[in-house]
Design a protein that fits this description.
Keywords: Signal. This is Outer membrane protein beta-barrel domain-containing protein. It comes from Edaphobacter acidisoli. The protein is mostly beta strands and 214 residues long. It has one domain: Beta Barrel (Porin). The strands form two sheets. The chain has an eight-stranded antiparallel barrel. A two-stranded parallel sheet has the order 2-3. The longest helix has 15 residues. The chain is elongated and about 60 Å long. The chain starts with a helix and ends with a strand. About 9% of the residues have low confidence.
């Protein structure tokens, strides 16, 4: 789904909910701008032969120097459904997908081949009522499938198991719309197959949530 189609999808969701009250809405769709940081690259088993860490001499002609992390920018589309309440806590399920990339890869002295991180995750969430009703913080745990070149192996894209924990704050601005002020995430990628390694992932996002009339 490209950016134009994503915007049209969210706009259609908003229009569909304008005629319906959102007081008991349990389902929502959302779109956010997302920044990812993928780290622990220097120790990766997939670094090309002849690579070296940034601790080696800068003008060492026998190696290519790599940074330990890359940052990718992109967008996240997702949906959640809250199915159970326990006092001020509402429990639900969430699915999301993120496409992010950057022109700069992990090479220290050049852009290299860029960086890519794509994922599809599912998980459970808990949101909390506050004394000021428009503010609703939440936490979430998710896991799923991700593809990445770790900033070093394009055009080879590796398959990974990804796990993430999230914490964020939504603020109601309209009966059918919230502003996702901020969401922070922390987790990691574990490659599938023989190249065992862990790449920690940090995320920060902000965007819009549209509540659906069911």
């Amino acid at each position: 789904m490209n950016f134009r189609n994503a915007v049209l999808f969210l706009a259609a969701a908003a229009i569909a909910t304008l005629a319906a009250p959102a007081a008991h809405a349990q389902a929502a769709v959302y779109g956010t701008f997302t920044v990812n940081q993928l780290s622990n690259i220097v120790g990766s088993p997939v670094l090309p032969s002849g690579s070296c860490s940034t601790t080696q001499p800068i003008f060492n002609p026998s190696c290519i120097s790599y940074n330990n992390s890359v940052v990718t920018l992109g967008g996240t589309l997702g949906a959640y459904y809250d199915f159970k309440s326990f006092g001020p806590v509402r429990l639900g399920a969430d699915v999301r997908g993120t496409l992010s990339s950057a022109k700069r890869g992990a090479e220290t002295f050049s852009n290299g081949s860029g960086s890519r991180l794509y994922d599809g995750l599912g998980g459970v969430r808990a949101s909390f009522k506050t004394r000021w009703a428009p503010i609703r913080p939440y936490i979430q745990g998710s896991a799923g499938f991700a593809k990445s070149d770790y900033g070093v192996t394009d055009p080879i894209i590796h398959n990974n198991f990804q796990y993430m924990g999230y914490a964020g704050v939504d603020i109601k601005v309209l009966p059918v719309m919230d502003f996702r002020l901020v969401e922070f995430g922390y987790g990691g990628l574990n490659p599938l197959g023989t190249n065992g390694h862990n790449y920690p992932v940090k995320t920060v996002s902000s965007g819009i949530v549209f509540h659906l009339p069911f």
